[in-house]
What we know:
By secondary structure, this protein is of the alpha/beta class. The chain contains 19 helices and 24 strands.
Amino acid sequence: xxxxxxxxxxxxxxxxxxxxxxxxxxxxxxxxxxxxxxxxxxxxxxxxxxxxxxxxxxxxxxxxxxxxxxxxxxxxxxxxxxxxxxxxxxxxxxxxxxxxxxxxxxxxxxxxxxxxxxxxxxxxxxxxxxxxxxxxxxxxxxxxxxxxxxxxxxxxxxxxxxxxxxxxxxxxxxxxxxxxxxxxxxxxxxxxxxxxxxxxxxxxxxxxxxxxxxxxxxxxxxxxxxxxxxxxxxxxxxxxxxxxxxxxxxxxxxxxxxxxxxxxxxxxxxxxxxxxxxxxxxxxxxxxxxxxxxxxxxxxxxxxxxxxxxxxxxxxxxxxxxxxxxxxxxxxxxxxxxxxxxxxxxxxxxxxxxxxxxxxxxxxxxxxxxxxxxxxxxxxxxxxxxxxxxxxxxxxxxxxxxxxxxxxxxxxxxxxxxxxxxxxxxxxxxxxxxxxxxxxxxxxxxxxxxxxxxxxxxxxxxxxxxxxxxxxxxxxxxxxxxxxxxxxxxxxxxxxxxxxxxxxxxxxxxxxxxxxxxxxxxxxxxxxxxxxxxxxxxxxxxxxxxxxxxxxxxxxx
Length: 557
Ligand code: GLN
C-alpha cells in the first residue's frame, strides 16, 4: 500500500436500495472533513455499463461529470456537495469498466496464459482502484451500490473484505445501512429484514462496526438493541437515523446518533468537528423569508428532481444564501412549444409568465426544444432573468438569431443544415459520426476567457475576491478573468451567425482560450440574461454556492 496513513470506511446497504446510503456515507465524510481530515469518496457500482453517459436520465437520474471528464451517476454529485471537493475518474468504479479493463488486458496477453477469474482478478483490480482513489487522503470512504446479496454486487463485497487483509482490519471501518419498515396494520417496526441483511453480510465475512438503522420515524432504543442482539454487534454500534426533512440535516442526525464516538475511536483522536457553516446553511435553508421567488425550470422531464439534481440543488442553495424562499415551477418544454395551441391558452406559457426568472438546463434530442427556444425568446423580449446551461445557451442563440433574421435558425442536432444556412448551432469538429457513442463528447473541465467588462466576468471576479468560489477562477492583475467549468456537449455556436445573434440581442462574452468556441453569452439590455456552454451547476455547493446561480437568484429579488 502506497498511502500507509490512510484509513478506509466501507458503506454497504441492506434490505432496500434508495434509503439514503449515499447521503449517510457523504454525511460521515462531511463530519470527518469538518474535523480537519482530508477525506475522499468513491462509489463502486455493480452494473455492467462502462460509465453513466448513455443511461436514461429518467430511469437513472442526472448524469454527473467529473472535472477530468468521466460521466458518472448522481451520487458523485452528492459527494462533491457534502464534502466540497472535486471527485475524479478514480471516484467511480463500475463493474463494466472493471470487466472491460480485464478483458482488454487478457486480449493483449497480459495474463500470460492464466485463467482470468472473479477472484482474484476482479477483486484485486477493485482493490487497486480503491488504493488509487485514496492516494492523497487521510480517510477514504467507499460506497458499494445496491444491497447486500445482489448477485452482481458480490465481487465488490468480497473485494472490500479482502481489502482489510491488505491494509489491516483496524484501518477499515465497515458501515451497514439497513432499513426497518413500520408495518401499519400491526402498528410495529419490523427488524427481521435488517437481521437477515446483516446475516448475509456476516456470511460474506464482514461484521460491521456500525449499523445505521433507517426508519421513517425515530425508533425506540429497543429496536437498535434487538438488531444488535440478533446480529452479534455491540449495541453502541447500532444507531438510529430516522427520516429528516432535508438531506443537509443528515450530518446533524449522524452527529446525534452516537456514530461520532465510533469515528473518533477509529481515527484515534477526538476532534470537535467545525460545523459552523453547516449550521448557518441549515438555519438559512429552514427559515421562512418574506420574499418568495419563482423560478421556471423549462425541462423535458418535468417534476423529476433526480434528472436535474445539480440544477435544483444549486438554485435552492442560492435561494437560501440570498435570503429568499425559492420555488421551482416545472415547465413542460414540449407543452410550451406546442404550436397547435394559441399562446393565451397554452398552460405552460401561462405558468412561465407567472415566474420571476427562467432556467433552461442541459438536454439532448429534439423533443421539447421549441419550447426551450420560446422560453429564451420570452426572456429576451420581456427582460425576464434567464440562466441558460449548455443547451440553454444554444437555444438562447437560436432565439436571438431568429430575431436577428435567420427565421429558421436551429441546431444541427435538431435537423438544421449548412445547406439550408440555418445551422446556428453546429456539430463540433471531430464529433461527426459519434452522436450515439459513449465517452466521446467534449467532457470535463475547459477554460474560458471572459470579456472583463461583462456581467459574467464581474460576477466571477466578485466571488473570487471574496474567496467564495475557488475551482479555477483566475483574476489577473490587468483585470482579465479566466474560469474553468465542466462541459458535456457535442454541438457549439456557429460563429458565422454572430451578426444575427448580436442583432437579436446577445453578446459573446466568453470563449475558449483560442477564441474558437463560444463559452458564455449575455444580453446587455436585460437585467440578467446569462448563458453558458458549460454546466456550472456541477460545481455549486450548498456551503459554497456558484456565483452565476447566486447572481441569477439575486436578480429575482
Ligand atoms: N445537446 C447539446 C449538445 O450536445 C447540449 C448538451 C447539454 O446540454 N449538455 O451540444
